[in-house]
């Protein structure tokens, strides 16, 4: 978390900064501003998660600053610092999106209490987990294929949607849960990232929780590439290999999709996009290629060859074979000089 303290009294702003530094959930950075304009400059430079702002400041007072922030930076949590005589001003600030206010004199207990209240109030509703599941599933499938453009589309869509419904803390917590869910799903595919993915307690040098999430995904993607290079072929080659070694079985689109960890519809589109032929076309081609090799061996009965390549119904096998090669199975043997 990043904190900005704006107060024209040096003793007060430095005092609040020191109190905040002692908070149990430590801040990534704590910066101070000596008036409203200075605060706005710092906010434009880096967007803090939380702003403590005094009502009375020169050049731009706290009310005006809160109004500007409410118009431009809806995700910033604002805490107004006021005296008892400023209560009406504080109420006005609440209409500008201010979340809490502190009355002077301020103690360490006051700062820690308001921080606890903020974090408690900004946990995200469990209903978002349902949306999270669907979104993570799409991210997972694109990540497995290293389709970074598609991943970026998913992120941009959700970033735009959530920014209107959730604050920065809720988004950060939700993305932490999304990453945990993604890692669990990847482990079901027998892949675990090499680099540890630490929980996002703040987003450090990144501009937003989503920027940090993007960096985490890149890290997972890089580990995925390293893992594949040392252990397995890519998903397409895995699918092809499975098909080639199970031609005699009841080989379905669903069964192959399950083996490589994709949904049936996604695998169907992926296979067509990568090979320029459908799953059925590829399966038929490989079955007929195997049948042709076995037909070249004189002592193997044609009916047995049909079963060996997945056709229990011999007439159906004969029809498919002729459609692909232009010959019946027996006609193909005669062509090879086998009687």
Description of the molecule:
InterPro entries: CheY-like_superfamily, Homeodomain-like_sf, HptR, HTH_AraC, HTH_AraC-typ_CS, Sig_transdc_resp-reg_receiver, Tscrpt_reg_AraC-type_HTH. With 339 residues, the protein is an alpha/beta fold. Helices cover 60% and strands 7% of the residues. The protein has helices spanning 10-21, 36-45, 62-72, 87-94, 108-121, 128-144, 148-162, 168-188, 209-230, 235-244, 253-260, 264-275, 279-295, 302-308, 314-325, 329-335; strands spanning 2-6, 29-33, 50-54, 77-82, 100-103. It has a five-stranded parallel beta sheet, sandwiched between helices. The mean pLDDT is 82.
What's the layout of helices and strands?
Blueprint lengths: L1 E5 L3 H12 L7 E5 L2 H10 L4 E5 L7 H11 L4 E6 L4 H8 L5 E4 L4 H14 L6 H17 L3 H15 L5 H21 L20 H22 L4 H10 L8 H8 L3 H12 L3 H17 L6 H7 L5 H12 L3 H7 L4
Parallel strand pairs: 1-2, 1-3, 3-4, 4-5
Keywords: Cytoplasm, DNA-binding, Phosphoprotein, Transcription, Transcription regulation, Two-component regulatory system
Subcellular location: Cytoplasm
Main location: cytoplasm
In short:
This protein is of the alpha/beta class. It is built from 16 helices and 5 strands.
Gyration radius, to the nearest Å?
31 Å
Element string (H = helix, E = strand):
EHEHEHEHEHHHHHHHHHHHH
Number of domains: 3
**CATH fold topology of the largest domain:** Rossmann fold
**Share of helix, binned:** 55-70%
**What is the strand arrangement across the widest sheet?**
2-1-3-4-5
Task: Please identify, by name, the CATH architecture of the largest domain.
Answer: 3-Layer(aba) Sandwich
Structural class: alpha/beta
Shape: rod-shaped
Question: What is the level 1 CATH name of the largest domain?
Answer: Alpha Beta
**Which range does the strand content fall in?**
5-15%
Q: What is the CATH superfamily classification of the largest domain?
A: Response regulator
Distance between the termini: 81 Å
How many β-strand stretches? 5
Q: Uncertain segments of ≥5 residues (pLDDT<50)? A: none
Helix count from the secondary structure assignment: 16
**Sheet with the most strands, sense and barrel status:** 5 strands, parallel
Determine the mean pLDDT. Answer: 82
